[in-house]
TrEMBL record:
Highest taxon in the source lineage: Bacteria
SUPFAM superfamilies with a match to the protein in the record: YkuJ-like (SSF143567)
Listed name of the protein: DUF1797 family protein
Amino acid sequence: MSQLQGILTRLKNLQEQSKETESAQRFFEIDGMKKCQVTYFSKTEMFELEVFNEKTKSSKYQFDNVDMISIEIFDLLQS
C-alpha cells in the first residue's frame, strides 16, 4: 500500500508543478529501467501515460482521474 501512496503523492506533485507551465512530466522506473512516463496537462486537467515496451512501440493512454492512473502505474510496476 505504501508504494501506491508514493505514486499518488508523486502524481499530485506533478499537478502542482504544472501550475507554473502548461505541462509537467515524470518517469517511473524499476531498477534503473524506465517503465513509463506520465505527463500532466494543466489546461485540460488530463494525465497521459506512456508505457515503454522493449519489443514494440510505446503505448499512450489518457486519464482524467488521479486515482485511476495511480492504480495503472502500480500494476505496471508490479509486473
